[in-house]
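Q: Hand in one record:
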Amino acid sequence: MRTNKAIFSIFLFSSILLSSCGGGSPEATPDTPAQSESTETTIVEEKNVAEETPTVETEVTAENTEVKEEVKVKEEEPSKTVTETKEEPKQEEAEVKLKKLTTSIPPVSVVGTPAPIKVPNLKAKPLKAPSIQVPTNTKLLSKGKTVTSSDDFPIIGELSLITDGEKEAGEGYFVELLDGLQWVQIDLEKSSTLEAVWVWHYHSQDRAYHDVIIQVSDDAEFSSGVTTIFNNDYDNSASLGKGGDKPYVESNFGMLVNAKKAKGRYVRLYSNNNSATEANNYIEVEVYGVN
């Protein structure tokens, strides 16, 4: 038994000795070349990827460039829109530069007992002066201009009183024409764009004048190119067409008509008697516009 144990111990010692001297290395050796080849393959693949990468970067760069160019175009377009938007208000501001039209108002002068005014759709007598907005370059065009009439020889006064600037209602300030349909006409001397016509008939007594019609034309005979800016002939008794404006009571404030930029050299005003007498009276006519 001891002999066997001794033999076994020697054998075990020999095995350990062989193991410590590299007895297992022959099995590991064949694996080494395989690992080297795998390493080289990996390096080669990495090189190939590295060589292909610049192409990818070039394409991306080109795409980025296109994107940047598109962004620039989109950024420039709104700036054009902003520029156009800024120009429009300037034009609008030039168009809306207006002023209140004013004039001298004559004193109140009442003579006699007021007679009833039997006229349909009559406007109430005004309590204050009328006013409208007109362009700032509007001016009085009629002052001192020549006046003609359908009545060559007025009963009272001279036709020049109609544009002399005096608006009082006493004697020496008004013109009286024959009864029936009559007209007075102002020559502005050149064609103008009209903004307003301000009219004073006889105002020392409450009365309404019939068939008050105001027309503008470049034709002195008013046979063509006629624009009507006021017409209160509600029954077409003047045979110039039925009007839509209301009759009104005369006062020291006068009657202000918006001419709505009618163009012409001549302004003609009609009347056909009044509610108190069979006469046609004018104190003053002011024509405002631009020429």
